[in-house]
């Protein structure tokens, strides 16, 4: 019998604390859910919201955050709601990105993540130490 691996053992990307807000739009629906960012990785994002987004839905996430100069920046990335859990009067939601953030499609987001990692000497995004992306 195989021993089941713990979730943190199979995660590919480090999670980073990220101060920002998110406007989440379910594709094919005319509904926007406002949320706060809990954390972000190169494969997805964790959010807190007062409304349910809906597990399994394809979404567009418009992120707003302050850059290193204190200016508000925005970027949009798409993904799929992987899980959602009711927590008191809030919802905790995990969204898997359709693609990893990259400079052609998410320049402001990737610039900010790169700055956070470099400025605060955070771990490189990829847990495999042989690979340094940034």
Keywords:
globular, six-stranded antiparallel β-barrel, Thrombin, subunit H, 134 residues, mainly beta, 2 helices, 7 strands
Written description of the protein model:
- The chain has one domain: predicted glycosyltransferase like domains (Thrombin, subunit H).
- It is mostly beta strands.
- β6 (72-87) and β7 (90-97) form a beta hairpin.
- Strands 2-3-4-7-6-5 form a 6-stranded antiparallel β-barrel.
- It contains 2 helices and 7 strands.
- Helix content is 13%, strand content 43%.
| CATH fold topology | Thrombin, subunit H
Overall outline = globular
| Number of extended strands | 7
Oligomeric composition of the shown chains: single chain
Topology (SSEs and partners):
Layout: H1 7-10, E1 16-17, E2 20-26, E3 32-40, E4 44-49, E5 58-66, E6 72-87, E7 90-97, H2 107-119
Antiparallel strand pairs: 1-3, 2-3, 2-5, 3-4, 4-7, 5-6, 6-7
Short description:
Helices cover 13% and strands 43% of the residues. The protein has 134 residues and is mainly beta. The chain starts with 6 loop residues before the first helix and ends in a 15-residue tail after the last helix.
